Amino acid sequence: MSERQVLNKTNLGITEGLPLQASQGGIEELRADIQRLMDMEAIRQLKYAYFRCVDTANLEELGSLFHQDVSVNFVGGTYEWKIQGRQDYVDNIAMAFSREAVGQHNAHHPEIQMISDTEATAIWYLADNMWILNHNAKTCGTAIYWDRYLKVDGKWLIKDTRYERVYEMNEVLEERPKLSSHYLGVHGTDPQF
Hints:
Strand content: 35-45%
Number of helices: 5
CATH class: Alpha Beta
């Protein structure tokens, strides 16, 4: 696993984006300002959809959120997960979010930087819980995500996504949790491990 880094904008490769101030010009400049705000909202909705699709194993929609050449690098307390390409990432999510999994991932506090009309970066704070029921295992923690987005044919896509854990707790449960509702139990994939 790679060495721990300081999680600041410089080390994450996040540079200053376009200024967040209203233009001094006329109606066309105002339209451009509004479009930038609309793009920032589209990026928020993209990331929110990502977590919803992950936790519900909605693989078809999940795949539509990524650039075909997406680069993934997640660093946890006991793992480093590197994947290149949309299909490999979706296949890995399918394996992890089986009928024997329960996931709850929330991202908040986005710091979105518009680099241009077609490129943006963002930092997100993640809080998550993950249970692998057939192993009586639970992981919970937080992480800092940093992403790069590209606007392709009018649609924002995740081009690069990375996270590093702020903290992670892993535990082996004495018994299988008794769930009164388990969405992935019905809609998840067949367990692979």
